[in-house]
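Researcher: I'd like a structural prediction for the single chain below. Treat it as a standalone chain; there are no partners to consider.
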Amino acid sequence: MSFVNTIRQWDEGVAFADTRDWATALRVLLDIEEMNSKIYFNIGCIRLINKELDDAEKAFDNSICKDEHLAVAFFQRGITFYKKLKFEESLGDFQKTFTELRGNQLIDYNPLGLRYKLYACEVLHNIALAQAQLGQWEKAQESLLTALSLKTESKHGHIDKALESVLKQKLFEPVEIRAGVLFRPNKNYVAELEKKDYLGKAKVVASIIPEDDFSGFAPLQPQVEEEVPTKQKIPEVLRALEGEPHSVLYEFIAETAEELTVLPGNIVFVLQKGADNWASVIFNGKTGLVPYNFLEPVEITLSSKQELEAPNNDIPAPPRGKPPSRPGNRAALEPSPKANAVKTSDEDDMIESQMCILKVQFGYTVAIHTAMGLSYSTVLDRISKKLNLPLDTIILSYKKTASHRVNVDELEMDNIWRSAQNGRLTLWCDVKDKENRPFFVARHTYEATQPEDLEFCQGDVITVLSKVNEQWLEGQCKGKVGIFPACFVDQSMSQQRN
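Model: Treating it as a single chain, here is the predicted structure.
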């Protein structure tokens, strides 16, 4: 059996034990082929719970054989001998446990995966009990007096009561490890068992094109199966189409559904030109409006086609200057079977300052091309659609000073537009937390074994933040956040905080 399978079965067996399904937990742990001292210890503890004392003794024997210095295994075997009324063997194991403490007041097994602290005073408590069972009352009294000198916490008050019982030559109850406290596999090893998606799904985080779902890389082009031709082919856009061919001089980005986005060098065919300097063109099978002063007529003749076929080693011409301003509002053109309707206006130009690029800082940055002076509700609606978020969850703010941000509302929106510089404005977007998170009541005390664990006591109220997996939850208790086993809380008492 591989190490991975051992960790998987070990973790599965402990998970069944957390639900008090001792039979299934024991069956899973016994199926492990390569057992270590910790797994044998777990099997012995479950056998002890089921009162299978002979099998529990054998399991603890195997655990000690694997690790001769595992003090807690000697301690549990001493408990097993005590319940089998073998008091001399029990006394020997408790004394061996005390020896393995090596003069320390306690051993914290949390780093090894066992949520238990073995105290020297509790070991001496059980030594005294075994001595009392053998009639050695004076030695039992000495053991308890030594235990009192090593007592460090108030929860060890049972040692004082045991001393009172010994003075009256009466027996008392032994100290035992709580049922269900087992060694757990390393969390880092368990986490590696789950499959991880390192790449995730690509998504658009910013684009100058509204409602763009493209991930940002050029699409694959069809590959040429035949050999590469020695001469350039005549572009298909130069084939005879209806309308007059024109070359695009400047980049034009469409701002309405009627307009058409074109780039420098594209060849378009003008279907109709209006008096307002707008032209209805066709490009790549789409018809739309483009400013006519962005275009230049092209004559398609046999000589021009031959020039395209000839190699051109000249240095390309430098880019043109600044593009002309956009025409004013469009007026309707005469209806034509070959063109769409084009709007006209009395204004000749549109002032560029009336448009603005609105940058919204969210988990990522998005850019929205919009008009200046829009109301707060209109801006909020556009941002809501762009980010795909509900309107009532969005909080907008802007930097009024270098270190101070102010929330945006209808009254503040006018001042914000005045602060726009060079047709650019930046807003920040936050989202309200509208979740009603459930909270549970802890039915057991849970001690943290790792930095990411959430520690709590029985009866504490825990707010559940998320579900890690079937056995673990992420929650908050007393101002601290961490993960904990789901079986440690009473899910039947789940409530919702408003």
